[in-house]
Specification:
Largest sheet: 7 strands, parallel
Pfam family, one: NmrA
Domain NmrA-like: 5-265
Protein name: NmrA/HSCARG family protein
Structural class: alpha/beta
CATH topology of the largest domain: Rossmann fold
CATH class of the largest domain: Alpha Beta
CATH superfamily of the largest domain: NAD(P)-binding Rossmann-like Domain
Number of strands: 13
Order of helices and strands: EHEHEHEHEHEEHEEEHHEEHEHHHHH
Distance between the termini: 62 Å
Family: Belongs to the NmrA-type oxidoreductase family.
Shape: globular
Keywords: NADP
Strand order of the largest sheet: 3-2-1-4-5-6-11
Helix content: 40-55%
Radius of gyration: 20 Å
Length: 292
């Protein structure tokens, strides 16, 4: 049984878990953060922000069980980028859910991905869908959040100097919009779910904060930097050999795409972070381009 409404956050040293932990702390909630290495800089930063660090590992069932004692809620997020890839991600997702059942957790918020159930053919989307399906077999009060593409991803493919300005290049038809979200807004929605379980328990909700085409994304970069920025569509065929998972994702953007109800989300949360606003705080134009 929960004694104080404590929320255990997984992935607290990462982007999503960190955002959730910070938002919960901002709202005055007691936050425990599961960490493998309490000495890690990101873990220390969480502790300084007010979180209680709990040593544990998603491959160690005993540590998960111990971490969930007297915890009211759990925020569960896993990554496919570590050792073991999507197989480890799915195994960890199941293990965390099993531990929550054993502990009698009252509210389990799982972070999946937008469109997980819509034939994406993207391995790290499908792994999350399998975890979702597993959650439905358990006696566990669940909310599933399905965030869309992070604003952060655009830093990996940020505009590069070209000619007298910048060029943003992606494998995307310039007419096709893609929904985006700031990780801080994932934190907001997760905290909302814990704060108002009556409105969130049992729901699966796709969440986003913006929707832009490639040229509109380029315009957001230009608005922040003041440097002329154009959009360029890259041919997808070379990507199929180098990164078939990424090629499948961009194919899916054009075929199906995310379907978050932005109008409804903005009605309940009118200050969702747009790409332009996020870039103003998180991106600086390349020096060569900014000097032009």
């Amino acid at each position: 049984m929960a004694l104080d409404g404590t929320i255990l956050v997984l992935g607290g040293t990462g982007r999503q878990g960190g955002a959730v932990a910070r938002e919960l702390l901002r709202r005055g909630r007691t936050v425990h953060a599961l960490v493998r290495d309490p000495a890690k800089a990101e873990a220390k930063a969480l502790q300084e922000a007010g979180a209680v660090l709990v040593r544990g590992d998603m491959d160690d069932a005993a540590s998960l069980t111990a971490a969930m004692r007297e915890v009211h809620g759990v925020f569960s997020v896993q990554t496919f980028r570590g050792p073991g890839g999507v197989e480890a991600e799915e195994r960890h997702g199941r293990a965390v859910a099993d531990a929550a059942v054993r502990a009698g957790v009252r509210h389990f918020v799982y972070s999946s991905v937008g469109g997980a159930d819509r034939d994406t053919q993207v391995p790290h989307f499908e792994s999350k869908h399998r975890v979702e399906q597993y959650l439905r077999t358990l006696d566990l009060p669940v909310t599933v959040l399905r965030p869309v593409m992070f604003h952060d991803i655009l830093l990996d493919i940020a505009p590069r100097p070209s000619g007298d300005g910048l060029v943003l290049a992606m494998w995307l038809d310039p007419r096709i919009p893609v929904q985006l979200i700031a990780t801080s807004d994932i934190g907001v929605f997760a905290a909302d779910a814990f704060e108002n379980p009556g409105a969130w328990l049992g729901r699966t909700v796709e969440i986003a904060g913006d929707s832009l085409t490639g040229p509109q994304m380029a315009a957001a970069f230009e608005a922040v930097s003041g440097v002329p920025t154009r959009y360029q569509q890259l041919p997808i065929e070379p990507l199929r050999n180098a990164r078939p998972d990424l090629a499948n994702m961009f194919d899916w953007f054009e075929r199906e795409g995310y379907r978050a109800d932005l109008e409804e989300l903005r009605r309940t949360r009118p200050h969702l972070v747009t790409l332009e606003r996020w870039l103003a705080d998180n991106w600086t134009a390349p020096v060569a381009a900014a000097a032009r």
